[in-house]
Amino acid sequence: MMDISDGLSSEILHICKDSNLGCVLYEEKIPVHEDMKKAAFKFEIDPTACALSGGEDYELLFTVAQGDYDKLVLNEQISVVGYMTEAEQGAHIITKGGGKHSITAQGWNHMAK
């Protein structure tokens, strides 16, 4: 479990690396507040890019075993945004249009010079 204050894409890649797994995220499942969508459109930025790379969200990202999925799926405060895969499958996002793209970390880097 970790917070996504450095961006969802960065943090899911940390989880993948630390657990030697890959992942699939679904763009349509990533919660984006309507006010944030409006602001993104105003500045001509894709709201999904903001959700993946933006920071300061202070939401938690965690995984559970597939067998525990039913225990949390009905909780309205938890958004299931994807699933973990074998490491060889990589880390991808499936777009609303059905495209499949590799996830890259673009969040805040504390160690950048």
Summary keywords:
Phosphoribosyl-aminoimidazole Synthetase, Chain A, domain 2; 6 strands; single chain; globular; alpha+beta; 19% strand; 113 residues; 28% helix
**Secondary-structure element pattern, one letter each:** EHEHHEHEEE
Quickly count the domains: 1
What is the rounded distance between the termini? 27 Å
Mean pLDDT: 90
CATH architecture: Alpha-Beta Complex
CATH homology group: PurM-like C-terminal domain
What is the alpha-carbon Rg in Å?
Answer: 14 Å
Unreliable residue runs: none
Q: In total, how many beta strands?
A: 6
Question: How would you sum up this structure, described in words?
Answer:
By secondary structure, the protein is an alpha+beta fold. It has one domain (2-102): Phosphoribosyl-aminoimidazole Synthetase, Chain A, domain 2 (Alpha-Beta Complex). It has 4 helices and 6 strands, in the order E-H-E-H-H-E-H-E-E-E. The strands form 2 sheets. Strands 4-2-5-6 form a 4-stranded mixed beta sheet, with helices on one face. The protein has a two-stranded antiparallel ribbon with strand order 1-3. The chain is globular and about 40 Å long. It starts with a strand and ends in an 11-residue tail after the last strand. The model has no long low-confidence stretch (mean pLDDT 90).
